[in-house]
Design goal:
With about 160 residues, the protein is an alpha/beta fold. It has five helices and five strands, in the order βαβαβαβααβ. The termini are far apart.
Amino acid sequence: MLPEIKKILYATDLSENSRASLSWAMAIARKHDASLLMLNVIEERVSTSPSVQIYFTDKEWKDLQARLDTEAVDIMKKRMEEFCNEVQSEIPDCPYVADETIVRRGNPVEQIISTAKDHHCDIIVMGTTGAGRIAGAIMGSTARRVLRRSKVPVFVIPMKDK
């Protein structure tokens, strides 16, 4: 029995290589009449300078952080829509780009894996930035770590040579 592909998770960092991987995700979705879930993860950063925080009460600081989180997610959703529209204009025969767009905060690998599980995705499509052999060997790429940990197939599109 052939596996069915009904829901595709397309994970993107909105880099230039993401255009190629989105094209692949769209082609697979179209071929299998599958829905396409688009995910961008805003990576958590540890603040190295807590000096600003001392001017706020705990509640004010938490409220400010929550407001900034909401604004960051809204900005990323807008950028993702613009990105989709640009790619769609480059591929006019594709009737749609994404059925759902999600922006999450946290560790990209963890968020990609949990989103695929939570949304019952049949496949993950993502690009690789091609950081190079040394960088990849030392710290590993997000794509490589997702590939190792995912319970569903992962389709990784390599960066094109310029």
